[in-house]
Amino acid sequence: MGVDMAECIFCKIISGQIPSAIVHSDDNFFVFLDINPANKGHTLVIPKKHYETFNDMPAEEVWHLFETVQKVSKAVEKGLRADGYNILISNKRPAGQEVDHIHVHVIPRYKGDEMAVRLGWNYKKYDEGEAKAVADRIKKNL
Ligand code: 5GP
Ligand code: ZN
Q1: What is the pLDDT of residues 78-136, one digit of tens each?
Q2: DSSP 55
Q3: Ligand 1: which residues within 6 Å by Cβ?
Q4: pTM
Q5: Ligand 2: distance of its center to the CA of 51 in Å?
Q6: Pairwise CA distance, residues 98 & 88, whole Å
Q7: Is 101 among the residues known to form the active site?
Q8: pLDDT for residue 25
Q9: Residue 78 C-alpha to ligand 2 middle, in angstroms?
Q10: Alpha-carbon distance 19 to 14, whole Å?
C-alpha cells in the first residue's frame, strides 16, 4: 500500500488534473462519478485531504464524511429513481481497495438488477461457541 500523494489519482481528480463527472465539491469533500460504474450513477465521496484508509481519518472528519455520504445517497436515490442503494468502503488490497485514497462508494440499486457486487452469496458458518469468541475478540479491541 501507499502511493505517494503526488501520484494519487484521486488527488489529481480533486485538483482537476484528471477530468471527472463532478457531482459536488466543497472545502472538505469531493463527490464524482465512478468511471466504471457497477450501476449507472455509482458515485464516490472522498475527503479532499489525502488519507489512505478509513483507519487513518480522524473521528471528527468521519462524522462529516458520513453527513455528506447521507446527503449524496438521498440525492442518488431520488435523482436516479433508484429503489435503494449500497454504501461500501474497501480497505486494503484483500478487501479490494485499488486506489489508496479513502473513498465511499454510493451505488444505486434497482429491483432485479444484476449488479456485480453481492455480499453474502458465499457466507461462512460459525462453529458452536465461535460467534461469541469472535465477538469478544472484536470487543477487546474497541
Ligand atoms: P476501490 O476498488 O479502490 O474501492 O475503488 C476504486 C474505484 O475508483 C473503482 O470503482 C474505479 O472504477 C474508480 N476509478 C479508478 N480510476 C478512476 C478515475 O480515473 N476516474 C474515476 N472517475 N474513477 C476511477
Ligand atoms: Zn489522494
Answers
A1: 999 999 999 999 999 999 999 999 999 999 999 999 776 665 667 789 999 998 998 89
A2: G
A3: 9, 13, 18, 20, 32-36, 90, 96-99
A4: 0.91
A5: 7
A6: 13
A7: no
A8: 96
A9: 29
A10: 9
